[in-house]
Amino acid sequence: MFNVYGPTESTVDAVVSEVTPDGTGSVPIGRPIRNTQVYVLDQALRPVPPGVPGELCLAGPGLARGYVNRPGLTAERFVANPFGAPGGRMYRTGDMVRWRTDGVLEFLGRTDDQIKLRGFRVELGEVQTALANCPGVSQAAVMLREDRPGDRRLVGYVVADDNETMDIGNLHRQLPEYMVPSAIVTLEALPLTPNGKLDRRALPAPQATTQGEPHLAPGTKKPSPPSTATSSGCPP
After folding, report:
1. For residue 210, is pLDDT > 50?
2. Strands across the sheet with 31-32, in order?
3. 23, 136, 153, 186: which could join 164 in a potential S-S bond, CB 3.0 to 4.6 Å?
4. pLDDT value at 208 more than 70
5. What's this model's pTM, rounded to 2 decimal places?
6. What CA–CA distance (Å, rounded) separates 136 from 167?
7. Are 59 and 87 in contact (CB under 8 A)?
8. 187-224 burial, b if ≥16 CB within 10 A, otherwise e?
């Protein structure tokens, strides 16, 4: 089985990874196919080192010419390729990725999922990936909420795996404290739009308490692994 990544603007297939039975963690999107160049760049379109999130940009003969009757959008997404021959172009996908140490790409999320919280830049896709990799979690989503004016915080949403006990304690070993959600809401299923995408507007606000247990507020104290006995709310 192969995990094939690519936008329509790059004739659909651009990066591919073979999925192996012994794989652990998230499935990478892999390496570029023949005649496709891949760059992971920062906001100034400079290459970032392995392990650092950046925007995935594609180049090569597979690129489309642009968007029909939309010159402004074409100029925004199809930009000059500073790493290729004069006159060459590259496509800014808007997807956040990072190089792994083994030379393959790992998908993190969208660039519009980048937020700033208490002075820190946070990639929501990176937090979501870490949450989804926790034992007992089958699906995960993360969003920035401001249910009360001035109270901006990260909230995680998880769908528990019936076959395992959920343990989000790994988050504190994978992420710095400012990236750990201040509340986790356990749902029976993630809400979806008619198109099958995550409906963020339908994600509920976390409750202050769950079955008499305290709400997980922002801070540096590491909580104990939560119980999955509830269908919604904030585990400790």
Report:
1. no
2. 2-5, 15-18, 31-32
3. 136
4. no
5. 0.57
6. 6
7. no
8. beebeeeeeeebeeeebeebeeebeeeeebebeeeebe
